[in-house]
């Protein structure tokens, strides 16, 4: 048995034991929907600042989190959407002496996710479902880089350079589609496993695909980081597991925690290297609808090279490589169910 299989088995056993500690709860039939929108804002203005006092700052960001779940008889259909986005601008004026381009907005996060899972109960009142599970991950806005001029990731071509973006919607995008068994002992825990699932890495833009940084295949000798031959689609077959858990606790259920762990092993290439996509949300309710949310995402894909964080390197980045990527965001959110 591979290390990936042992890891998956351990997670299933652990989660199953956790589920036994919870009494089964009746899940209401029909639609159960809810959404939350959160914002973070930071602003600082300096006019004739003292030496060393800092510089102007404007930061805008937010997150939209929604779900729509349906249950009727032996059918269950769960749908989720999450978009996290934020930008900031540090300083004022133009980017350099003699330049005309203003200090641009830098992108700090842009992540768009969709999830959908349909299940049919194997036995009436049972806890096992035949299920179809699909996920989608991309970003909604373009990202530009100008390392020879001004460091950072930007939401626009602020110098009208004519360069192609580093990324944009569907470039890249990751799509999974799997058939399997879903274990749902209650409305807090779901354990899905597919021994035969598909995963697709899509880089629809040729100019972006030719860079070879998003997991698509490239070949030939690169010229200034551009490969002469490339593929826009990388199709994979493998094993997929997904564990979802949510709970509320504390006085009047003021605290909430939800976790969604996705694990994928590619049978065709290094199956022992498991891809991880782990999303976590911790919330505190000031009132029934006003919450403080902390999002923490952990991501690793054996096909994708990320920017390696090194605080001793220029701009805190030491090239590209395979690493675990961690993202955290804190927002004040308005949320309600309907």
From TrEMBL:
It holds the Pfam family DUF3078. InterPro entries: DUF3078. Keywords: Signal. Residues 1-19 form the signal peptide. This is DUF3078 domain-containing protein. It comes from Neolewinella aquimaris.
